[in-house]
Amino acid sequence: MARELSFAQSVERSIIKTYRSDIWNPFVEACKNYQLVNKGDKIAVCISGGKDSVLLAMCMKHLQKYSDVPFELVFLCMDPGYNAANRKQIEHNCKILEIPVTVFESNIFDVTTSVGGSPCYLCARMRRGHLYAKAKELGCNKIALGHHLSDVIETTLMGMFYGAQLQAMLPKLKSTNFEGMELIRPLYCVNEKAVIKWRDYNKLEFIQCACRFVDEFSHSEDGIGASKRREVKALIEELKKTNPDIEHNIFKSIHNVKLDTFVAYKQKGKEHSFLEEFWED
User: Which pLDDT score is estimated for 147?
Assistant: First the structure.
């Protein structure tokens, strides 16, 4: 007689069974291709309370069980000033999904909403700094964030459209302020649509955006609201009507950069021009 699965086990099983091709395989592909998880790592999986970070936590739990590479996990949730309902929802999800989360508090929302203008950039930097610091305190050498393929694509396009630059999002990078620490993005090859399907299949409820600055975020499907990123999402969906491969092509383009065709580029903070090599020939 088959053993009855707990709710957490059932949700985990859906990742490797129902969504194996859309979530599990791309997750493993990213971990292998970008060498995100190595022997002896102690990784802090950062949980914000949204669907992406919780899926990441479940994937990392399963990987740890069956990987040939031994590594440790810590599950971290930083409370930047959530309201009581959001804090309760995060703790509830971690309990029913059997994620042994460590919650620590900060006053980031109080600080960033008092600076004037848009606090988003400052908030993101402060969040990451607090997570690095706590992870290092716990003996970790890496933090794992829930950015996925859709984030990579949208960030690339936003850089072009609104930042006048060609800039992608790396699957891993070294911290410049915390020596010996790295940031990894194991969901790098997972499309957000698969994450949404997994969430709905398991009837899970997550907080969306708990930001005090933009209340409308909580009323949007993805927690983004009427932002530039949302505009880019809509544009991609429109382009897919005539080119179903548009997301795949954009993602592959950042792996296939023809640097010889660029007029100028910046590497390690130093600017270069095509003229440097033009006159050498």
Answer: 96
